[in-house]
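S2.1 Query sequence (Hydroxymethylglutaryl-CoA lyase)
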Amino acid sequence: MTRVQDVYPDDRVSLREVGLRDGLQLVKTFPSTAAKQRWIRDEYGAGVRHFEVGSFLPAKTFPQFADVREIIATIAALPGAHGVALALNERGVNEALASGVAEIATVVSATEEHSQANANRSRESAIANVKRLCDLRDASAHKPIVNAAISMALGCSITGAVDPADVLKLVEKCLEAGVDFVAIADTVGYAGPKQVGELTKAAVKLSGAKPVCVHLHDTRGMGIANASAALDAGARILDGSLGGLGGCPFAPGATGNVVFEDLAFLCESKGFATGIDIDKLIAVRSILRSEMPGETLYGGLARAGLPGGTAANVPA
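Output structure tokens follow.
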């Protein structure tokens, strides 16, 4: 068994809670470091084990991630917990490596237009960036897991439809560059289950023994249906955020990521054990309501409760 298979076993679904990074990307107010640590510890107590904890971006521009090293240390202190941080350039990668984070994520845009608009670089340059990240990982002391997300993989906010063949070429190039796995990201929530299922199935086939992650947004209400299709197509890593926090600067008015609580319930309903106590998970939303009272929280389970139980009675 490889280290990746140890963290993301082939025989079960791994759910990654991305609220601390993707969920906080655009917020005007954000939790204190102490509140983030309670968020993590309470989710850990509910059975969550995979956390995207922040980004190595300039603190002046993204103050919500200024404490990323402290949050990484919080995760590292919890037995069996796994932390993921985003790094988009060599400076960020070196900082991530120095932090000792267990996994580094990076991004390649599916379309040339989005790559230029979002990162001011070509897709080929982005692939070279992935290769450099993998080389730096190989030369590092602790050799973190590396994943590359293909953003806008199922529809682009600039160009519209995206050719799946183009996405699969990027998946192949990322794998050749040395990543441990690739994530397929419906960044602005364009797709429906048919598209998600077909692209995921193709990515799973291309990835061979390496896992495939699917990262979904609920912009058009398709998030849970798309997650179900991804599971059916062989994805075994799925992203979601507590309360559906998040959004995208390229989709004005869009809601955020798939609601993590609802995602856990979906997996359990399809026979995939998650090890997560959903009632305890829903209770963690109280931290978000206290720390970010202006943020809308989403979720069917928080509103209605688990089937056969009492309503959660948690304010949105």
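The radius of gyration is 18 Å. Residues 123-139 form the longest helix (17 residues).
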